[in-house]
Amino acid sequence: MTTTLSQPEITFVDALTERCDSCGAAAxxxxxxxxxxxxxxxxxxxxxxxxxxxxxxxxxxxxxxxDWTAKVPAV
Length: 75
Fold this sequence. Notes:
The protein is α+β, with helices and mostly antiparallel strands and 75 residues long. 17% of the residues lie in helices and 28% in strands. A four-stranded mixed beta sheet has the order 1-4-2-3.
């Protein structure tokens, strides 16, 4: 069975208070997953996992000024 996700919502905020789930640095991006979980990433890890995150997210929350390289799939 193939599940098709709609294009993720992207919201920008002044600041995030979470820490990166990979390394503990200040988060620049929070990702709400289609499975219901939420992950936070520093800039480095958000860039490293950009293509994978774009495939499984329903929502992104990014800090203003964060230049994320992900290509969010078109619907």
